[in-house]
Amino acid sequence: MPPTFPSKYTVSARFYDAISAEWPIYGAGRAAAIPLLHLEAGAWVLDVGCGTGLNFPWLQRRIDPSGLIVGVDVSTHMLEQARRKVRSRGWSNVQVLAGDATTATAARLREPIDGAGYDAAIATYALSLMDDWPAALATMAAACRPGARLAIVDMQPPQGHAALWSPLARLACRAGGSDIHARPWTLLDHYCEDITARSVRGGHIQVRVGTVR
Ligand SMILES: C[S@@+](CC[C@H](N)C(=O)[O-])C[C@H]1O[C@@H](n2cnc3c(N)ncnc32)[C@H](O)[C@@H]1O
């Protein structure tokens, strides 16, 4: 089946950083997840569904210029914004690849690091957009070395008192093309151990980070 999601990220790609509620809501998922990757200077990090590269500054602060970030995304418009960000910040240690994470092979994702395994991989608000997210997660894990850290940040309806905000959360997810009921973190234990869980913004944002077996 041809992918339908890129249409969500064509014209809107130029405004994505401004309209994606990063500061009040979704940045909190990155803030919770990225420290749990335990990145060291020189680390190689894979960012699946990297979009405009909103994770890149967070990752850069931890890997220093000797590390490498490889972002993959199916939307050429989002990648164009990511490349623009990389150029304007003068980052020479970021590569972005066009590709569908549900059909890409681990070998393809490992090409920028000469076939070695990544030290860490992350997917923020991306797997829930993919029809076959289990395939993307399997490939993400296969692209990592054993002992690498793998993080999933994704969405579900807000819980408890915050359930009041559910209509808004559903609307935001529908507008972005994600399935709020996908719960892609539920398969992380197939690939990882030592999983740490965090729940932020009233449970709307779920974070899971584990160590690849
Ligand atoms: C909501 S945006 C999130 C972008 C970024 N990870 C962030 O945290 O801001 C979802 C991204 O996933 C990408 N995406 C959706 N399906 C994909 C697929 N099958 N393979 C690669 N990227 C995909 C979209 O193009 C979009 O850039």
UniProtKB/TrEMBL annotation:
**A biological process from GO:** methylation
Alphabetized SUPFAM superfamilies for the sequence: S-adenosyl-L-methionine-dependent methyltransferases
Say which domain of life the source belongs to.
Bacteria
Q: Which GO terms describe its molecular function?
A: methyltransferase activity
Where do the Methyltransferase domain residues begin and end?
45-147
Q: Does the keyword Nucleus apply?
A: no
Q: Which UniProt keywords apply?
A: Methyltransferase, Transferase
Q: Mind telling me which CDD domains this protein's record contains?
A: AdoMet_MTases (cd02440)
| Protein name according to UniProt | Class I SAM-dependent methyltransferase
Species the sequence originates in: Lolliginicoccus lacisalsi
